[in-house]
Amino acid sequence: MADDPLPPLLEAVLSVGTDLELRTTLQHIVDAAADLTGARYAALGTADPGQDGLIELLPQTSSGGTPISLRSPGTAPRTAVSLTVPIRVQDEEFGTLHLADKGKDPFTAEDEQLLHVLAAQAGIAIGNARLYEAARQRERWIEGAAAVTTALLGEGSATDALTTVAERARLLADASAGVILQPTEEGGMEIVTASTYDDPGDIVGTTIAPGSPVLEQLLGGEPVFVDDSATDPRMTTPVRHRFGPSMMLPLQAGGRLIGTLALPRRRGDRPYTSVERLLAVQFASQAALALVLADAQHSRELLAVFEDRDRIARDLHDLVVQRLFATGMMLESAQRRSGAGDVHETLGKAVDELRSTVQEVRTTIFALQQPPADAPTTFRGRVLRETAGAAAVLGFAPSAQFTGAVESRVPERTAGHLLTALRRALAAASRRSGVARIEVRVDATAVLPDGREGVRLTVYDDGTADDGGTGTTVTWQAPL
User: Fold this and answer.
1) Could you read off the pLDDT of 127-141 as tens digits, one per residue?
2) Element (H, E) at 442
3) Residue 163: other Cβ atoms inside 10 A
4) What is the pLDDT of residues 89-118, one digit of tens each?
5) Angle at CA of residue 249, ends 157 and 252, nearest 5°
6) What is the predicted pLDDT for the residue at 436?
7) CA-CA distance, 136 to 172, in Å (whole number)?
């Protein structure tokens, strides 16, 4: 008895539920129907294959609909007697199971009854496969959102963060591109970063003009789903013709619209399923929250750096500068009391060195009070940036001293010319041999030869001069 074969119906019923992958399950149903009835042609069709992402380029069946799985030695004969049975998944009509060509024998009432039993079991198997596929997709999107959050909370710039979101979303959605758009001052939206299989250079910078119906939905925090970007009248970007199905998802957290995540597929690709749309919307919400958290974390880290730099600057001012100043006063007092010429000269040099050191420490204090990562916006900060850049070539940092209210007295145009002269002087000094010290002085209280008030730049280096001597001084000046 143990070796007795299973009844054909039971074997067919068991076979359709042996796999949880939807496409494989559908193929099992078609094969079981053909084996059970002896039909030479079997097809399973559905009126909405896009719902489960099952669109395939297969021939149409005589019963209508799109066949998504079949078994046939050829096409179904037009004159063959056929048998069609609907398949329902819970209360929804999934599609139809179509059989034809049983040879010389017609389909019997028993065949139809067996097929109805198989169709009922097929509905259960399809429902289970749908649940399994939805669970797998949900797991992938959740893992993707977690990976994005981890990446965004690490080190990296704001541009890198947006690129991370675009790249991960593109892979999860099996899209042709992952695109981030951000609002513009004119009220539109601009593509600021894109992840594509090819070079995204022609996509970045594309804008959506103000007043677009799509834009109104996005600015209102509503997702936009497009069946075909190339033909949808709502789409107005010049790159729309290369894309088909698309999702445009607002990146919104705490009522703040950060931007939009767009996930277009190529023209002719399958449309997004309802499950994919739901998971993508949830991913966009999680990504927006991660972007806000990453921005807040970056701001806290910058604040900690500023506070630390400010503390160091206060310590330098309160301790180092005051002690150096006191020491200089003592040396000046000793110099006035000293009678020996050599001692007087030595004390004079010590006083000059202390004054120079105090000036350099004050310059360092100012540099500590500048934003560490961003380009300085003040004139003094830009001068310090130029000297710091020269240090990479020279191997040491030139000293910089400022006299007068350089920030308020030097106009922007004059400041630009002075910085150009400074770059040239530093470049020339770096080419001279034996340079071990460079001094940069900016004097906003200078008086020009014609008596006008002006600003004077002096750059001195101790290298070998063009005439063979030691030391070169370059001077540039302009009226204020």
Assistant:
1) 888 888 788 878 888
2) strand 438-447
3) 19
4) 887 888 888 888 887 788 888 888 888 888
5) 60
6) 87
7) 12
Q: Which residues of 395-433 are buried (b: 16+ CB within 10 A; e: fewer)?
A: eeebbbbbebebeeebeeebbeebbebbeebbeebbebe
Nearest to 262 by CA among 326, 214, 334: 214
State CA 298 to chain mean position distance: 15
Q: Report the pLDDT value the prediction gives residue 59, as an integer from 0 to 100.
A: 35
User: Using an 8 Å Cβ cutoff, are 279 and 138 in contact?
Assistant: yes
Global pTM?
Answer: 0.49
User: Strand locations in 137-289, DSSP E?
Assistant: 177-183, 189-196, 207-208, 224-226, 243-253, 256-266
Report pLDDT digits (tens) over 286-331: 888 877 776 666 666 556 666 666 666 665 666 566 667 667 776 7
For the sheet containing 453-464, what is the strand order? 399-403, 438-447, 453-464, 470-479
H or E element: which one contains 112?
helix 109-152
What is the residue type of 271?
Answer: P
Q: Measure Cα distances from 52 to 62, 98, 174 in Å.
A: 22, 20, 14
Asked if 273 contacts 50 with a C-beta cutoff of 8 angstroms, the reply is yes
Checking if the pLDDT of 216 tops 70, the result is: yes
Do the beta carbons of residue 265 and residue 174 sit within 8 Å?
yes
Inform me whether the pLDDT recorded for 342 exceeds 70: no
Residue 132 one-letter amino acid? Y
Say if residue 66's pLDDT is above 70.
no
Contacts of residue 450, Cβ cutoff 8 Å, sequence gap at least 6: none
Q: Encoding tokens for residue 380?
A: 């003094």
At 20, which amino acid appears? L
Q: What are phi and psi of 233, to 5 degrees?
A: -65, -20
**Quick one: which H or E segment has residue 426?**
helix 412-431
Q: How far apart are the C-alpha atoms of 16 and 36, rounded to whole Å?
A: 12
Strands (E), 72-129: 82-89, 92-100
Antiparallel, parallel or unpaired: β 399-403 and 438-447: parallel
Whether the predicted pLDDT of 401 surpasses 60: yes
Q: 3-state SS string over 220-248?
A: CCCCEEECCCCCCCCCCCCCHHHEEEEEE
The pLDDT value recorded for residue 6 is 46
Higher pLDDT among residues 56 and 472, named by residue: 472
Dihedrals φ, ψ of 471, to 5°? 95, 135
User: In terms of Cα–Cα distance, which of 264, 311, 253, 315 is closest to 286?
Assistant: 253
For residue 478, what are its two tokens?
């302009």
Q: Phi and psi dihedrals of 289, rounded to 5?
A: -65, -40
Environment class of 332 (CB within 10 Å of its CB; exposed 0-12, middle 13-18, buried 19+): middle
* Joined tokens for residue 163: 């690129």
Backbone φ, ψ for residue 159 (5° rounding): -65, -40
